[in-house]
Amino acid sequence: MKLLHTSDWHLGKNLEGYSRLEEQEVVLDYLVDLVNKENIQVVLIAGDIYDTANPPAKAEQLFYQTLKRMSNHGQRLIIVISGNHDNPERLVCAGPLAREHGIIMIGYPKTTIEIGQYGKHQVVAAGAGYLEIEVEKERAVILTLPYPSEKRLNDVLYEIQEEEEKKAESYGQKIGELFSQLEKHYREDTINLVVSHLFVQGSQNGGSERSIELGGTYVVDKNLLPQKAQYIALGHIHKPQVLGENLRYSGAILPFNKRESKYKNSCNIITVAPKEVPLVEVKELPNPKPIKVYRLENYQEALEVCKETSKEDSWVYLEIKTDSYMKEEEIKELKKWKDSIVAIEPILAEQEEKEEQSFHRELPMEELIKDFYKSQFQTEMDEELYQLFLTIIRNEDDNETDSVSITGNQ
Ligand SMILES: [Mn+2]
């Protein structure tokens, strides 16, 4: 069986207010060509299809168009799960229409998919959190775990009141327990896979996480994932990475901010048969409009950069050292040369000194977070969020909080 693993499309995401849909379209076009060229039979999309729970109509349109083209009239199976950015109910609401195109959409952990025909293929067995597919006489058992917020996880794992004490178990333990139940569906004559949207320990963050999954609360140890799985297709971290031969983040389809521009984006092609070690090929994705960051000594240098880059398709950040705030005419002049300047950040001399100092000083966590927040969002952290942060680092009992709304940007 030949599969494609991709995730974190974040359709509808903006860069400082600028739409990225055109770029997303270019990359998705590439993926449609790729699945045809490589004769991919099954596509796994591991969550964060959209950037927000309420995506713009154009983003939804792009999603449906892409799935339709990828499926090629149901010749190819596509399995989509929700990530922390997706609204699970909304993501799957086109499911009944998608089915005849061979598209399976899963919003919540422990969802049971209907058995039967999907496009040209079959779901031959299914239960809460798993399905068995048949594609050209080969069978695969796929465990599906869409983003499991702590609340969703409690809802699906413990339905009975008596199990209240189990809620106190760590997030990782709960995930481990769920997987050890699901893993029983694996067989020797099937290809055994997982698709999930999770923060697994060992991941290097991609750059856009401003998450409060600090202190390990929402992190899952990789040893708690099904050891018998031949391939585990993960979404959530935007930087592609290998946590084990069979355990990978495909990474996002584009760099979504300047920190993410430091690495290349890719997707994975997996060729696998029952009982065999899969063959994984990493395919680099096109980056139609790269994000470039320039740190400049003065206004003149900035002007030079704008002239040099005026003809190329790129997003530009200018960080300009200056003694005073920049004049409006100067900003206009820069934008006249380069129209895709996303931000001009004056670095005042005193600010630079402070940056250097704070780098060397050892501040308590309570103060560092305020500085960090201010440097990231150019505004003071509000009191509610600050208190929430304190609660977490002081390790108070916070099990009832649903982390979806406050988890970061990944
Ligand atoms: Mn994401």
Structural write-up:
The chain has 410 residues and is an alpha/beta fold. It folds into two domains: 2-284, Purple Acid Phosphatase, chain A, domain 2; 291-393, Rossmann fold (3-Layer(aba) Sandwich). The chain is 29% helix and 24% strand. It has helices at residues 21-37, 57-71, 88-92, 95-98, 150-157, 171-182, 299-308, 328-337, 349-360, 365-377, 383-393; strands at 2-6, 14-15, 18-19, 42-46, 77-81, 103-106, 116-118, 121-127, 130-135, 138-145, 191-197, 231-235, 241-244, 247-249, 266-271, 279-284, 291-296, 315-322, 341-348. α1 packs parallel to α2 (57-71), α5 packs across α6 and α7 (299-308) runs parallel beside α8 (328-337). The protein binds manganese (II) ion (MN). Manganese (II) ion binds next to loops.
Kindly state the number of beta strands. Answer: 19
CATH superfamily of the largest domain: Metallo-dependent phosphatases
Under CATH, the topology of the largest domain is which?
Purple Acid Phosphatase, chain A, domain 2
Radius of gyration: 23 Å
Q: In this structure, how is the largest beta sheet organized?
A: 8 strands, mixed
Helical fraction equals 25-40%
CA distance, first residue to last residue: 30 Å
Q: Please identify the top-level CATH class of the largest domain.
A: Alpha Beta
In N-to-C order, the SSE pattern is EEEHEHEHHEEEEEHHEEEEEEEHEHEHHH
Q: Which cofactor or ligand species appear?
A: manganese (II) ion
What global shape is seen? globular
Number of helices: 11
Structural class per helix/strand content?
alpha/beta
Beta-strand content: 15-25%
